[in-house]
Amino acid sequence: MGRWAEGPCPAWGSPGKKSSWQAALLAAFILSSCFLLTQAKTISVTLNPLHPLEGQDVTLTPGGTSNFLLCRWFREGDAEKNRIFTYYPVPNPVQQDGPSSTGRETAGSNCSLSIRSLALKDTGNYTVLKDSPDGPESGSVRIEVLELLSKPSVSAFPSRYLTEFIDSVNLTCEITSKTASVSWLYNGEPLEINPRINVSMDNRTLAINGAVRSDAGGYQCNVSNPASTNQSDPMYISVIYGPDTPEIRPNETFYNEHSEVSLSCYADAFPDAHYIWSINEKERSTESKLHIPDVLSEDSGKYVCQAWNVLSRQKNSTSLNIEVAGSVYNVTINGPSTAIEYHPVHLKCSSFGSDVSYHWLKGNQLVEAGGRIILTDNNRSLTFTSSNRDDTANYTCQGVNSFSSNSSQPHWLNIFYGPDTPIIDPQESVYNEGSTLNLSCFAISNPPANYSWWYNDQLLEDQHESQLLIPDLSGSNAGIYTCNATNDNTGYFNASSLEISILSSVYNVTINGPSTAIEYHPVHLKCSSFGSDVSYHWLKGNQLVEAGGRIILTDNNRSLTFTSSNRDDTANYTCQGVNSFSSNSSQPHWLNIFYGPDTPIIDPQESVYNEGSTLNLSCFAISNPPANYSWWYNDQLLEDQHESQLLIPDLSGSNAGIYTCNATNDNTGYFNASSLEISILKRVSNVTIVSHPEKAIENQPTVLNCSSAGSNVSYIWLKGNQKLTSGDRISLNNSSLIFNPTSRNDSGNYSCYGYNSFSNSRATYWLDVFYGPDDPVISPQGHDYAEGSPLTLHCYADSNPASQYTWYFNENELRNAEFPISSLAFNHSGNYTCNASNTETNLSSSASWEIKVFAIVSNVSIEGPSETIEYDSVTLSCISNGSEVSYTWFKENQRLEDGDHISLLGSNHESLVLSPVNRSDAGSYTCHGINSVSEDTSDAFPLDVLYGPDDPIISPQEHSYVEGSTISLVCDAPSNPVAQYTWFFNETEEMENSSQLVISDASFDNSGNYTCNATNVKTDNSSAVTWEIQVLEKLSQPILWPAASTVKEHENVTLNCTTSESSSVSVSWLKDGNPIPVKSILSARNRTLTVPDISKDDEGMYTCEARNLANSATSNPSKITLENAGSQDNGLSAGQIVGIVIGCLLGAVIIVAVVYFVLKKTSFGMTAQHSSNGNIPSAPGRNQGVTDTKPTAGEEDIQYTTLAFNSNNPSPPGPGPTSPSESGTIYSVIKKK
């Protein structure tokens, strides 16, 4: 949004000594000088920095045109009361502060606004208005001053010392800001959140649950806003852990005699672990390192390092078995010198010496493990898992350690092998009758093989050599000739066969084999004949027998085999022999298969009979030959029953039982049987219950057995009227009721019902279960008692029968189940044990109860200094009467916790240490003592913390003062006790001994450095601050001349500003309240303004302003008018015309009033020379107007200034008064107060 900008319309009066027409002329001038209304253009404003911080500086830079006449800045609105300053850039920059200025705002050449030392209250909306030749511009921006974050701190609760896996801790970030963001750092790095470590919703509390060692370290909280950040000092968390399993280094286990052994032991722990070394269970050292400079063989053994943690009381150990080695000697090989091929061979090397390694040589070749060769026991053992003939050799064992070696004597190993498969030569198999058979045989073997010859599996007694010779062959010589090679050392033999054929006709065919066989047994029939190259066929009756299933034909069908004969194989079998030129058949061979007996069938299958009836049973079983039968009763042979039929008349109860028919086949040797159980019913009677054991004891098994007379009796058990069923502990086995284990709740009245199909009876039994005693209960349940109080303990343990009780005090027997102690003393502290016993169960149980007697806490008081100095350390001690007292500290009713600079020392926190002390520690402290039975609080203990003085602050923060004013400086330095102050001027002159320094009627001599020194007589500290004061002259109103100039276009105009020549005084110029034209020329230290080449735009009211650091003053205005300016076409708009008309009407009213008062004044006191009323001096060298007179009461207070205008450029004022020229015109500025 734009805004309307308006310029000032100065009112001018022109009272003179001539006529009133001059007043009319002045009114016309005023009306023609009014500013017009225009629309403002919106511009952007940038902030640097974008997020300013409290205490920083900020610069607001507007956009838009850089050629502007003036600019104004406003805070929170654009009313005059909100104006910060108005800035005129040229010719000399001038800043005029407004009502909203704080003295910290500075204008820049580009209309920027710089604010020093930002405060939070500077937050707000800022608006800039710029007047430029192109029209007004406006822009706004908002400043958000961010808080300068103070340094946070971190507190830990309950303690920053944690035990691993047990303790937890909450860390709290202590900050004053409510808007700052909080994050956490661990050892300087962003903290990673996990399930054990989490933060609160506002991130200000960090919880570590179940601390682990990796949680130890420094925790910091970081607070930030968009412009600042701050970080706490680290809060160091210590985690007590370990020791872990120690590690021994080096882990070398072998050493040479007389060498050096140096071992170190380390176990991770906090605090560092303590160590104990032992060798073979004898303590050797309590250091982490164990050093043995000259180790001996007797130092071999188990080395143990034990680590323990003095805080956690935990221990851990590790061990190392060390062997001290000696020289190698007496190397020997044990093992066989001969072996059989493929058998395992084991050779073992032994020696004397330590840490010996072994190597094996076969001849001169190193033996390496692999395949059949296994080296074990540090190569001590050489094993051939399956020896072979190539293993025959000399073997040597070498023993080696780190500093010696030795070798065994060679060990000869001879491997016996073979015989391999013999080779028969020649391999010719067919011979003619009458020829000679000449065969030789050879088999590889160690030692050489022995040979024998076999003919058709018959040893040829006269053939013991490797050669076989048979002359004049006949058909009887045809067959299989076998050479058998034997090695007596290996025990092995091997053979090769060669079948010799001698052709002849088939004749004398016969069958060899059994004529009978048992079913399922194998049967083998073999056919033989005379003749050459005979083939065979078998017939069952007239049916050809073919191989398959159970039937196997082998040896060119010569052999017929039934692998598992059956009854269907019974028949006549015939064998036919055939060769290429003849055939013949055997005589029939009868084969009879014996089988059975199969399972007998008993008829009838009726199993229940009445007493007096007849039992008539028959039995039959399939069998070849027919079976023989026998009858059995309850596994007893019935001697008179040898037939297939069993007959028993007039049955009685004694005949009930199991009847078995046994069928037997004497040929097969098999038998088979079938049984039939016969029941003969009797009435149920004489039911009884017996307990085993006689006395039932809880948690042991108990069996109730029910018995009765009668047949086929079943049983039902009841407890009271409730039928029992099997469950977790109770099982029913018809007549038996079993409790396993027995429970006390099983006590009660039990009934057993016996019944069969036509009768029943019952018996009852009372079961009383003995149990207990249970764990005793001791009452009352309190452990802690005050000295002098009464105590009675009671003991009860549930038991059947009732328990018997015995009391023990610290293991010494007392009496009675309860006892009173009328007044407890300290010697009554201890363990009270109640023992309950049961004579029936032979069990006992006990319970212990610890009683502690405490002295009452009283007379709690605090000892320590009541006064301390900040940053020192102070210790307060809490003492009291009472036993096992723990203490809690409070400051102003606020509980104190260990952490930061507060330490609670002692096992019961009896000491409070503040280190270092700070001023906030001053206050009232109390100590609260408590034990298990009482508590008490000390009287308040005042602690006064002396501090300071801090760096003094001098106020007000002004450096410049006007000559003649009063300088009042106040010095303040926080201190306890209150500081004493001394003021110094320029470091030497002592001026005042109080916190305030007042200088009245300040002069230039009072400029200099003022030092305030603050001293604390108790801390013996002092501090000082220096403030520079500059006393500057009080500026009077500058004189601007000429007061008016009417010039022609393109002429030059020079204005002179007369003011103080002091170097501290600067001069700036304005035109109509705006910056002067750019083309203006300044000279004489800005005190002379030249406007060259006058144009219409240069018309207006000019003023000069004198300024130093303490005050400023503005001159009278000087009007520059262009001749004939009124005749020019202004191009006024309708709105401007309306504004001029309204302005003229208002101006006419004002002019009439002004003329009236001017005429009235001049008519009452005109003198020869006029002077000003003192606010603006008269122009030098000019005639003055009427003498100003102070109005009397009731009169209007009119101020006016006489101005002289001349159309020509005036010369500088001379040293003396002169008269105005005849052409000069005198005007006056009239203001009504």
UniProtKB/TrEMBL annotation:
It comes from Eublepharis macularius. Belongs to the immunoglobulin superfamily. CEA family. Gene3D superfamilies: Immunoglobulins. Keywords: Disulfide bond, Glycoprotein, Immunoglobulin domain, Membrane, Signal, Transmembrane, Transmembrane helix. SMART domains: IG, IGc2, IGv. Residues 152-238, 243-321, 347-414, 419-499, 525-592, 597-677, 685-752, 776-844, 872-938, 949-1026, 1038-1121 form the Ig-like domain. Residues 1168-1233 are annotated as: Disordered. PANTHER family: CARCINOEMBRYONIC ANTIGEN-RELATED CELL ADHESION MOLECULE 5-RELATED, CARCINOEMBRYONIC ANTIGEN-RELATED CELL ADHESION MOLECULE 8. The keyword Ribonucleoprotein does not apply. This is Carcinoembryonic antigen-related cell adhesion molecule 5-like. The gene is LOC129342986. InterPro entries: Ig-like_dom, Ig-like_dom_sf, Ig-like_fold, Ig_sub, Ig_sub2, Ig_V-set, IgSF_CEA-related, Immunoglobulin_dom. Pfam families: ig, Ig_2, Ig_3. The keyword rRNA-binding does not apply. The chain crosses the membrane at residues 1137-1159. Signal peptide: none annotated.
